Amino acid sequence: MPASLTTTFTNRILQGAAASLLVLALAGCSTTKDRMTTGSVPKLTKPVEEMDATELRSATDRLGQAYEKNPRDPVTGVNYANLLRMNGRDTQALAVMQQVAIANPGDRNVLAAYGKAQAAAGQFQQALDTIGRAQTPDRPDWKLISAQGAILDQMGRASDARQRYRDALDIQPNEPSILSNLGMSYVLTGDLRTAETYLRSAANQPTADSRVRQNLALVVGLQGRFPEAEQIARRELSPQQADANVAYLRGMLSQQNSWQKLAAKDKTPQGAGDSSTN
């Protein structure tokens, strides 16, 4: 797959398809993207996924002030680091999580968020090790297992990643975030038909959120069915959000040479993509 597409799809595995690493940081619902916990943290007026760029910057500034007052607080630190990441400040987010992890070495949620920050900064093996320390063998957490799969996908280890997703599904059957991650894993190796199967299954789950449907729209669009992709992309979103998602889809599909290569790869025999990525 062309490098530009690989980078985009890899990012979407952590940011758009699954809750895995993002939601682990907040120990929240697996199908809700980075909703902020309240309490000692400044209360937000709307979910993070509904904020525009100006609102995100404002929320980040407010969380930053709270973090400076109490850098040892795990909730403040985790939420601040996630907002930094959403603003593209991965290096700063990692630095914040390093300090929070030092102050809270036994906190599973902190360790999971720290692993997320490491993965975002490209420290994939360190991220796997950190998330492994957050896991407990007697009570395995499916979110952590799915997170490991997302990191393995970024490392190009598709078969290992998919096994982790299936392990997570054994614990949490039909979880849309895991199914979405699994679908996007097949996108990374160019198997769009299989990817669509998993993403449709994810989108059909009652707890699926809009990010799952946006990933489905992407895969449908990459197969040349743009009217259907646009219809999916516009569901349950404000006009502004829908326009932004449709613009993203158009931008992806405008890379005709890259898309044609991807589509051609999708016509190869099943399994061919897996063996080439490990």
- Uncertain segments are 1-41, 266-278
Largest sheet: none
Shape: globular
What oligomeric state do the depicted chains represent? single chain
Describe this structure in words.
- This protein is mainly α and 278 residues long.
- It has helices at residues 3-17, 20-24, 53-69, 74-86, 90-103, 108-120, 124-134, 142-154, 158-171, 176-188, 192-203, 210-222, 226-233, 239-253, 256-266, 272-275.
- It is globular and about 50 Å long.
- Helix content is 69%, strand content 0%.
Key descriptive features of the protein:
278 residues; mainly alpha; 0% strand; globular; disordered C terminus
How is the secondary structure organized here?
Layout: H1 3-17, H2 20-24, H3 53-69, H4 74-86, H5 90-103, H6 108-120, H7 124-134, H8 142-154, H9 158-171, H10 176-188, H11 192-203, H12 210-222, H13 226-233, H14 239-253, H15 256-266, H16 272-275
Helix pairs in contact: 1-8, 1-10, 3-4, 4-5, 4-6, 5-6, 6-7, 7-8, 8-9, 8-10, 9-10, 10-11, 10-12, 11-12, 12-13, 12-14, 13-14
What is the compact description of this entry?
With about 280 residues, the chain is mostly helical. The chain is built from 16 helices and no strands.
